[in-house]
Amino acid sequence: MTEPKKLILNLFEMNTVSHITHGLWTLPGNNRHRFNDISYWLELAQILEHGGFDGIFLADVVGAYDVFRGGPETAIREGLQIPSNDPLLVIPAMAAVTERLGFGVTFSTSYEPPFAFARRMSTLDHLTHGRVGWNIVTSYLPNAARNFGLAEEIPHDRRYAIADEFLDVVYKLWEGSWDDGAVIADAAGKTYTDPSKVRYIDHVGENFRVAGPHLSQPSPQRTPVLYQATGSPAGIAFAGRHAELVFTGGRTTADFVQNAERMTDAAARHGRTADDLKFIVQAGVVVGRTEEEASDKWRTYREQSSLDGILAHSGFPFDPTVFPRETLVRDALAQAGIPEKAVPTAAPDTTIGQLIDGIAGGREGRFFVAGTPRVVADEIERWLDEDGIDGINLRQYHSFDTARDFAELVVPELRARGRLLEGGPTLRERLFGRGPRLPENHIATRYRGGANLTVPVPPLFG
Ligand SMILES: Cc1cc2nc3c(=O)[nH]c(=O)nc-3n(C[C@H](O)[C@H](O)[C@H](O)COP(=O)(O)O)c2cc1C
Questions:
Q1: Which of 1-5, 222-226, 325-329, 375-379 is predicted with the least confidence, judged by mean pLDDT?
Q2: 106 CB within 6 A, ligand 1
Q3: Which of 183, 235, 303, 441 is surrounded by the fewest CB atoms within 10 Å?
Q4: Centroid of chain to Cα 56
């Protein structure tokens, strides 16, 4: 009999008050306001480690949400990703109190050059003994661009072209600049590192010039595990070349399967196989000891949810809350001076009330379940076996109840069904069941041993 497919289990987090479940920080007992305090991260990491989670995944943005209502006030009032702190800096604290929890962390390729970031990630990979992953993003907030000296965002596909070169630089540093065994720490010979095994990378490209050598010696994984979230053609081409875990989704099973196929095809174009790519979806799970307990919790969460937060997060182009519910969307858009095509999600002949109800109620999507541990585990097995996902990023409605409930009620059920991963010690070994380093068919490995450092990679597209 073949082994059942195992679930990659991550908690979705952000070093902020309100990440994606807006309004819920106000729930009794919610710890979200403690995110500035190191004790928050220590407590959370221990819950996850002992609760059977594989990783914590930290989102990040480098600007404020200031499109909705023409300014950042709504986001600021809501605690919507502002205030927010640097995600990298909480990782060593969590690593110190755990042994196998993985850390996926978001960093943007659009604004800060690659050399210092490569060093920071190598440092983290050393300090965690090989438990870090990088969520590669190109950033999407107009305000982020203005924080880094640009008048406006770099166009979408151009951001991916820059990201592709950014990756080329960090691969040279992580994989090519130092050989294994370079550090010999030979006290008698007075040689810490053998200089013949360390080299410049001399990268000269369209966007970056980096001499090297890399300042960190090789870490357990060298290149951190590579994550990416995308759906666009440029992003899929990028994922095909680089990503090991892709966040994707879909409103139906067929949608998800089609998205996954596109990614797998893109990976095949780079000589990679279906085993080299895993798919993670964001999932909502509300579990109770009884159906009633689960539905009570879910009702409370929904009642407390903030429409303003949702609208500001999506950068909604007009404010539907100022119109009477029975107003037609078409009339509201006309009054707000917004062309109908600017709001593709709002059918012009529906009412503002219908629009608002859809926005407030329609966010949970395909990968959501509320119920007893058995119902939840059945549904997760369906996601694994019928949709074909490899893992979830668990959305938090309440910190720490969401993680604790999942750990106490769902994890034992999944474990009994043989659905949880084991192994490690590095994150890559745990997720892929093979070595700590990238496999030979990944483009980054072309630089091993200092090969190909000045041979350009073919452009990703165009
Ligand atoms: C689960 C998930 C998590 C994401 N986390 C972040 C994040 O932390 N920071 C960020 O700038 N973008 C984040 N994004 C947005 C993606 O980086 C990307 O902009 C989005 O998926 C659109 O990609 P595309 O333009 O290639 O289709 C996330 C997307 C998803 C689906």
A1: 1-5
A2: yes
A3: 303
A4: 10
CA of 291 relative to ligand 1 center, distance in Å: 33
Q: Are 228 and 246 in contact (CB under 8 A)?
A: yes
The residue range of the domain holding 186 is 8-306+368-450
User: Is residue 261 in a domain?
Assistant: yes
Structural domain tally of the chain? 1
Its pTM stands at 0.96
- Residue 65 and residue 311 in contact, taking contact as beta carbons nearer than 8 Å: no
pLDDT value for 462: 59
CATH number at residue 289: 3.20.20.30
**Which of 252-261, 428-437, 446-455 is predicted with the least confidence, judged by mean pLDDT?**
252-261
Give the pair of three-digit tokens for residue 22.
Answer: 């807006």
Dihedral of CA 174/176/177/181: which sign?
positive
Pocket test for ligand 1, best of 13, 110, 230 (most atoms within 8 A of CB): 230
The answer on pLDDT for 161 being more than 90 is yes
pLDDT for residue 209 is more than 70? yes
Q: Are 307 and 328 in contact (CB under 8 A)?
A: no
- Residue 316 covered by a domain: no
Average pLDDT, the chain: 95
Residues 6+ apart with CB under 8 A from 427: 55, 102, 103, 130, 131, 132, 133, 221, 224, 225
Rounded to 5 degrees, what are φ and ψ at 193? -125, 140
Average pLDDT over residues 135-155: 94
